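Record format v2
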Amino acid sequence: MSDEVALNDPKTLPLSFTLPVVGAAGGFFGLFVGTAQGSTLLGIVVAAAVCAGLAYLAMVVMGVPQERTFKWGVRALFAVLGFLVGALPGLVVGLLFGWFIGWFIYWIGRARYRMTLPPYLTSGQVLWEYTFRVLCGAIFVFLITPILVVMPLSFNAENFFTFTPGMLAFDPEAYSLKHYRDFFTSSEWQQALRNSLLIAPVATLLAVSFGTLAAIGLSSEHVPFRQAIMAILISPMIVPLIISAAGMYFFYSRIGLQGTYLGVVLAHAALGIPFVIITVTATLVGFDRSLTRASANLGANPVRTFFKVQMPLILPGVISGGLFAFITSFDEVVVVLFVGSANQQTLPWQMFTGLREQISPTILAVATILVAISIMLLTTVEILRRRSEKLRGMSPG
Amino acid sequence: MSDTTDTGPVLAADGTPLKKSLSRALRMQKVRALMLIAPLLIFVLVTFIAPIVDMLFRSVENQIVSETLPRTTAALEEWDPDTGELPSDEVFEAAYYDIFIAAERKLHTRLGTRLNYEQTGVSSLFRKSGRGLDDIGEVYQDQFEDLNENWDEARPWAELMSDPDWIAAREAWDEDGAAPMPTYRLQSGISDVLPRTAEAYRIFAEFTQREDEDSPLEEEPWSMVHTALFQDLTEQDVSGYTGPQAAMLQGAAGAVGEFETISFRDGFVEIDEDWLDPEVWQTIQTYSPNYTTGYFLNAVDMQKTPDGPALRDEDERIYGLLFQRTMFMSLVITFSCILLAYPVAYLLSTLPMRKANLLMILVLLPFWTSLLVRTSAWKVMLQQQGVINDVLVWLGLVADESRLVMINNQFGTIVAMTHILLPFMILPMYSVMSTIPPSYVRAAKSLGASNWTAFWRVYFPQSVPGIGAGSILVFILAIGYYITPEIVGGTTGTFISNRIAYHISSSLNWGLAAALGTLLLVVVLGLYWAYDRIVGIDNVKLGG
C-alpha cells in the first residue's frame, strides 16, 4: 500500500518540461484568438509567453499551498481579458480557458496525470494513453454535439437556423419561445401531433399483444419450423424501409387501405413487431419453466398462470419491447409518406416536408421536444432492463 | 398385474400406451405453440410479406399492353419486324378498334405512359391518336347520316341491335329503385348478320350502362360502330335480315358501294406520321406478353432489342452508376463507422463499469433520438450559414465569402449517416470487446511483445467478430437509407432508394421502382444471410 503511494506520489517536474508544454497549450489557443484578431503569429507568441509565465508563477512562486488562490486568480484574469476582447461571449470563453489552464498547469507541473495510470508505464505509453482519451473525447463530441446544438437554437428569436450575434452576446431579447408557441398554436403541427398520438399507441398495442403471444409460443421447446417462422417475423426489421414502403404502397392501394388510418396503423404495427419479438424472447430465455409447472401443479389454469406468474416476470421485457415499437412508429416517416395521405400526416412527416422545403425553425422546437421524449424513454428502458435482470437473478449490469 | 407390466406395453394412467400418450402430449404442445404464433404470423404475412411479394410480382407484371390492346397484340403475333415492313392492314384495323375503346375508357394515356418507358414519344402518339381516331369513324358516320337521319339516332340503333326483351326491361327499370340495372343483351342472330357491328355495339352499350350510367336507348353510338357497320355491309349479305329496322339496314346495304372510304392505315398516318415507323409496332409487339423482363433490364441499364437484351447507350446509363454510388458510399460510411467506433468501444469496454455506463449514455442518446432530429441537426450544422461555417469564420480559418460547401453533396450524406449509424457499430463492438479478457494482452506484453504487437496479434483478432457484426449491420442499414440522403444529399449524394421513391411518387413508373426495389432486396437479403452466418440473428441486441 505505502509502496503504491510512493510510486504514484506527485512531485514537481523540472521547469524545462512544464514551461514548454504549458506554453504549447497556450499557443494552441492563442492561434485561434490571434487569427480572429488579425495576427496569427502574435497570438501564438503572446499566449505561449503568458501561459509559460503563469506556469512559472505557479510552480516556483506559489506552489501547492496557494494552488486555490492561483487558480481563482487565473480565472479572473482570463475572464477580464476575454471581456475586453469580446464582451460577454468573450468573458465566458475566457473564464472556461482560465479554468482549464489553471488546472492544466498543476496537472502537468505536479505530474498528476500519472496518478490514475499504472506506475510502470513508460512516458511514451502515457502520452499515447492521453492521446487516445482525447481522440475518444472528440468522437463523443461528434456523437453528441448535433443533438446539443439543436436545443439552444430552438430558442432563437429570429427565423434563422444558426446562432445570431444577439444569442452569442446572451442578449435576452435574442431568445424567445416563439417557435414553441408556433408549434402549439399552428393547426398543422397540432394535427400532426394528434395523428402521431393516434397512430403510434394503436400500432404499439397491436404489435405488443400479438408479439408477446407469439414470443411465448416461440419459446416453448417444440416448435416446428422455428427458423422459418422467426425469419418471417423478423423480416420487417431487415428489409430496407423504402422497399417495405414501396411494397405496402402497391399492395395497400390494391386492397383500398392506402391513405387510410387503418393502413398506416397496420403498417406501423408490422414494423414494430420484430422489436417486440426480440426483446420478449430475450426475456423468456432466462425464464424458469418450473415456475409455470409449479403454478399448474397448485391448480391454476393456463390463463391464470400466464397472468399471475409468467406475465409479471416478463413484464419488463414486454414494456421495453412496446417502447421500441412505439418509438418505431412515432419516428417512422418513409412508410407513412407512401401509405398515408394528407389526413395521416404525422410529426416526422411534417418535419420531413419542413426540412425539404426549408420553411421554419419550428422544426428545431419540435426536435428539442422529441429529444426530451427520447431521454425519458431511454431512462425508462434502462430502468426496466436492470429490473428485469434483477428479477431473473442476474447481476445488474 | 405383473403380467401386464411384463408382456404388454407400458400404460399411462388412463390405460393408453405410454408411448402414444406421450406423443399425443407432445403434439398438443406443438399445436398450442403454433396456435400462439398463428395470429402474429398471419398478421405479418398479410400486412408485410404480401406487399413484398406483390412488389416482386409487379416488377415483371405487364398485362397492361395485352389488356388494353387485345386485338392488336393478337394480330401482331404474325408480323415479323425483321422484314422492315409495316404490319398488315388487319393490324391497323385491330389497333383502330383497340385504341378507340381504350380512348373511351381513358386508358390509352396510361398505356402510352407505359410504352413511353421503352420508347420515347409513344406517350404523345397515343394521346394524339385517342383524339384523332374519331375522324376515321366520322367519314362513315356522316355518310350513313346523309343516307338516313336515323343512323344518327339512339333509338333506331338500339332497336336494330338489342334484344327486344332487354329494351322492355330497361324501359321499365326504375333508376332509384332497389332492383339492379338489367344486363345488356344483343338481339339473337344479329351477331351472324353483322358480326363486327354487334361486337362494337355491345361494347358501347355495356360501357354506356356501366361507366357512364346512361341508357343506350338514349345515347347515339360511337363512330366506331358506324365504321364496323360499313365494314360488315361491304362484306356480308344482309338481305335475309327481317328483324327490327330491317328497311333502314337494307337501304344502307344498297348504298355502301358508293361510299367514300378511308383505309385504317391512311387514317392513322393522317393522325401522326410516326405510325409508319416500324419501331412503334415493334415496341408494342415486344411488350405484348403478360410478363416481361423489361423492367429488370431497365434497372440494369439494358433494353430489349430485336437481337435480345443489350446495354443502353453510354449517356442513358444511370442505374449502374447509382448502384455503384450507393455501394461506394455505404462502404465509406461503414469504414468511417469502424474507425470512429473502434476506439470508443475499446474505451467503454476497458473503463470501470460506473464510468462506462455514464459514457454509454452519450452513445445511447443519439441512438434513441429521432432520425429526423439528427438529420435536421446536421442540416443546421453543415449548411453554408450553419454552425460549423459560422465557427470557422469566427475563428478566421475560413473567409466569410468562401464558406465551405458541406451539404447537398456526398460529403454531407457521409457525415450525417456516419453519425446516425455510429451507435449501431459501437454497440455490437462493445458487446464483443467486453468479453475479451485483459489478461491476454498483459501476457503478451510480459512475454516481450511490443505495444503494437500485443494489440495487433492478440487483441485485434479477438475483436474482429464485433467489427464484422457491426459492419454488416451498418452496411445493410446504410444501403437502404432514404430520408437522410434525400435531405442532405442534394443531387450527387443520393442513393438508389431515392430513385425508387422518385419512380413511385413522381414518374409513376411503378414497374421500374419494383424492379429496382427487388434488386436492392436481393442484395440486402444476401448480406443478411451472411450476417446470420457470422453473428446469428438471435444475437441481435437492442440498446446495449
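Chain B is about 65% helix and 0% strand.
Chain B touches chain A through 91 residues (CB under 8 Å).
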